[in-house]
Amino acid sequence: MSTIFEFSTIKQIGAVLIAVVIVLAAGTVVGQAPALFGADVTTDPEASIEFPDQSGDGTSVTVDTVSLSDGGFVVVTNGGDVVGVSDYLESGTHENVTVEQRDDEDLEMLGQLTATALQDTTDTGTFVSEADAAEDEDLDEHDRPYSDGGYPVSDTATVTMSERPDEGESSTSFVVESVDAPESVTANGSVDITTEIRNPNEFDDRQHVDFRLDGQLVERQVLSLDADETRELNVTISLDDVEPGDHIYGIYTTDDGALGELTVEPDDAGVTVLEAESDRVVADATLTTDGFLAVEAAGNDTDTDADTDADADADNETDTDTENSTDTNTNPQILGTSDSLEAGDHENVTIALEEPLEDGETISVVVYEGSVDDVENASAYSVGDERIEETVVVGEDLGGDGTGDSESDDETEADEESDGTESEDTDETGDDGAETSDE
What we know:
The chain is an alpha+beta fold and 439 residues long. It has helices spanning 3-31, 33-36, 130-135, 310-330, 405-417, 423-438, and strands at residues 47-50, 54-56, 60-68, 73-78, 81-85, 92-100, 111-118, 147-148, 151-152, 154-161, 175-180, 184-186, 190-198, 205-213, 216-225, 230-238, 245-252, 257-265, 270-276, 280-287, 291-297, 333-337, 344-352, 362-369, 379-380, 382-383, 386-387, 389-393. The relative contact order is 0.08. Residues 47-160, 325-376 form the DUF7282 domain.
């Protein structure tokens, strides 16, 4: 072999090696291109879902597992119609996800159903369908499914109606052993119900337990019990929209249940005015929901002659208060508000008035529900058609706790020195004396 041939071969091998190095370097640069140009390297959202065949009562289904990389929802459809949507699910894996039938759907959750994993594309925390987005001008997007290979991540199951056992046959249904609930509660509050549920079978099982009020489903819990296990369940039912009166509640399993009667009493929300001065009002109040107290203008023409018979004055003031109360309900003018108050009892709540009032003006102290920081959207609290309020006259002695003991003693002595017809004059004298003392 000649030296020239050997040198030529070496040159060819060297050229090949250089070419390989260049290609590898170029590939490295290309792979780093997004980072070099400031772009984030992202991965597509991923999801998986397992929806097995099952039996049920047509009002809910259970998804065994669902994994969502970016959070979202499980949407159950029947022939293209959405029949159920889960609550918002955080990113991660979730087991035994119960999907309830939608309130606005008549279709039962029976037959061949498809459960699909959807992203919270709209970032609202609430499922937005394509139909919802089309109907709402403020929505320009709807939630979209996770995809795998261009197809939605979903699973299909056949859901059949749970069969009731024939007469004489034993049932595998969980049994309602006992129920504990109060006989009466206050309207606009809540009621706590405790029940014991037993699995009478010789095998572990999982079934749902329904809590209903007047036949309406208010909560459903999915319960897993070992063979012959008994467990206590608790539920709190809101009574915000429940009218006072007698109501029937029920706890139901597949083939068993228990009923009870619940009396809803009118709530005890109330307000008692202790002082009504020109610059402030002091009151005690009981609230059954978070809110505040507000002073409303109730009319001004309440002055009466001090020399008029006391009984006639009382009648006139009653008529005036009634007329003013009607005016307040029509066009309330808020003169001042308290600080925010939580539900419960409150004593000596002080309400500073925005503008000073004169003695003799009539005002109403009203219980409001809502935020004191958003008075325009708050509303007067009422039981039925009756607002919780008290109407008083500014400057009148209300005998409240806010009045000092010495002042009460002075008034008592003055009453002893005067007869009943001069009681108003005595009060006026006391007021004049107080003003003189202040000056």
